[in-house]
Specification:
This protein is α+β, with helices and mostly antiparallel strands and 256 residues long. It contains six helices and 16 strands. The strands form four sheets. Strands 1, 2, 3, 4, 5, 6, 14 and 16 form an eight-stranded mixed beta sheet that branches. It has a three-stranded antiparallel beta sheet with strand order 13-7-15. It has a three-stranded antiparallel beta sheet with strand order 9-8-12. The protein is globular. The two termini are 27 Å apart. Bound molecules: succinic acid.
Length: 256
């Protein structure tokens, strides 16, 4: 196995693994370490993985989460089909932060790729936090933010209270201890105790810091890519520049 960084702030590719077979404990520990170190990794050349292989590998990361309002693909609870980039996935976010226990990891396997476009952007929320001054960091540590589910939750008939959660604006990673910004433009509606109008300027500033070029990595998908990201330390957004071509990826998320 070989692990190579893909950008300065985050991202690495992992070469020489075959996830259709058993992965020994030492190799899995090295992959997990690389993910915690780099925030997002791409395990190349996994086109032969079946849905069973993907679910089996995903289960090694923790409990597979069933999305509360987006259905799984037929016969494979826990695998969600991602297609047609939409406004929800085109905004910087980490996954399902409207949940009381937002997802720890997401595994996304390329199934059908367009000839061009549909890259996925990743940003290091850890590097973004580290770039702020100590005084500003200290102020942020005292704040929490309100995260609310999207309109999809309401259209699926879910009660609003079931898709609202309050999380600290700065979150320490449970494995590395590194602090990261934990607010995103998909789900955060306001700083807890502030109005949306009072919250917006601060939130916009933080989103701008997260998305600075030096905090990002742009993933250009290749056949067989299995990309895994850590939702505690990164954010992502798909680039909505696919026209008239299919783009299908299979997503599995792991509970915190
Ligand atoms: C997602 O936001 O989970 C999907 C990202 C992508 O389609 O690349």
């Amino acid at each position: 196995m070989e692990i190579r960084p893909l950008a300065g702030a985050l991202g690495a590719e992992v070469l020489g693994l075959d996830l259709t077979g058993d992965l020994d404990g030492a190799a899995f520990a090295a992959v997990r370490g690389a993910l915690h170190d780099r925030g997002v990794i791409c395990i190349r050349d996994q086109a032969a993985m079946s849905p069973e292989d993907q679910l089996g590998f995903a289960a090694r990361w923790g409990e597979i989460s069933i999305h509360p309002y987006v259905p799984s693909i037929e016969g494979y609870p826990g695998i969600m089909k991602i297609y047609d980039p939409n406004p929800i996935t085109q905004t910087w976010h980490s996954d399902s932060t409207h949940m009381q226990r937002p997802h720890a990891y997401t595994l996304l396997l390329a199934r059908v790729l367009p000839s061009v476009g549909g890259d996925t952007m990743f940003a290091s929320a850890t590097k973004a936090f580290e770039s702020l001054t100590p005084g500003f960091q200290a102020m942020l540590r005292g704040l929490s933010a309100v995260h609310e589910g999207t309109d999809l939750a309401a259209s699926a008939g879910l009660d609003h209270d079931a898709v609202v959660a309050v999380h600290p604006v700065v979150r320490a990673h449970p494995d590395t201890g590194a602090e990261a910004l934990f607010v995103n433009d998909n789900y955060v509606t306001r700083i807890d105790g502030w109005t949306p109008e009072e919250s917006r300027p601060l939130l916009e500033y933080l989103y701008g810091v997260i998305g600075r070029y030096e905090n990002t990595y742009r993933h250009r998908w290749r056949d067989g890519d299995l990309v895994i990201w850590d939702n505690r330390s990164t954010q992502h957004a798909v680039v909505g520049d696919v026209s008239g071509e299919e783009r299908v990826l299979h997503r599995v998320t792991i509970a915190a």
